[in-house]
Amino acid sequence: MKLKVKEKLFGYMDQEIKNHIIRGDSLKELKKMEGEKFDLIITSPPYNVGKEYEVKSSIEKYLETQEEIIKQLVRVLSKKGSICWQIGNYVEKGEIFPLDIFYYGIFKKFKLKLRNRIIWHFGHGLHASKRLSGRYETILWFTKSDNYIFNLDDIRIPSKYPGKRYFKGPKKGQISGNPKGKNPSDIWEFVLQDWESLLWDIPNVKSNHPEKTIHQCQFPIELVERCILALTNGDSWVLDPFAGVGSTIIASLKNGRNSVGIEKEEKYCNVAQARIEDFKKGNLKFRPINKPIHKPSKNDKVAQIPLEWLSVSQ
Ligand SMILES: C[S@@+](CC[C@H](N)C(=O)[O-])C[C@H]1O[C@@H](n2cnc3c(N)ncnc32)[C@H](O)[C@@H]1O
Questions:
Q1: Of 70, 121, 206, 302, whose CB count within 10 A is highest?
Q2: 314 within a domain of the structure (yes/no)
Q3: pLDDT exceeding 70 applies to what percent of the chain?
């Protein structure tokens, strides 16, 4: 029996596709997908810097191609959904072009709203000799509407000084923080000891990282996890249109979400499937989410849990 178009589209997202990588070209595969399906689209696109999986072109041509894909991504994004676009610099003759600046204009054309420009800092990388060494990339977090999923409590991090109190005003003497922890923040202050703790300090995936595979540009599973926890619910679908070795799928599986990835290179698809299987068997190595960066001494009064909080259930 011949299926009607609607049934075909629904069937596309069946159990065989769930938590899998589709091998193919993003634009072509996206065109087959039903609209408004995904609550989160998270990816790190090619940067047009001549990596083994890309053919370098002019920045104009590169952005034109990406715009076509983004148009489809906006179509498949749910009304309460978010796009997290993790990106670094395009470099030409020593001059850097921060790609998020160029992408911002494209997303605005499609009327998306920027909620945060998250700085992702990492401590290691190439040492530059004619400019400062690059040690961060950004994640542009856009939403389709003003009514978007945002579960702040699910990504709170431990307060550095849970015992801190208001020292003046009507709340003087009361505890100023939240027993569930603090907002992880997208910003830093130029105070040395706060520098590391306020940034999204997640080591990038270099050779000594437990998640390292053959892929040159993996992002860490914990980076994706934080976005998934904050921007999706239990029944949400997550999409990575440039899935590489499947970090997004693993982060989704780890948190009980449904996900799909698209990747054009067979060898990365194979590694991704192997990682997914290893994860399911409990054999995949990964860095745990939210490893604390700075711990004040337990003797510091401000580091102690206030008596008032001991009765609050976590
Ligand atoms: C920066 S990497 C993403 C790595 C991924 N975040 C991970 O953790 O493994 C970009 C990926 O996009 C893939 N790619 C580039 N153009 C593509 C296209 N048109 N369709 C599908 N995949 C594409 C590349 O092969 C590469 O693996």
A1: 70
A2: no
A3: 83
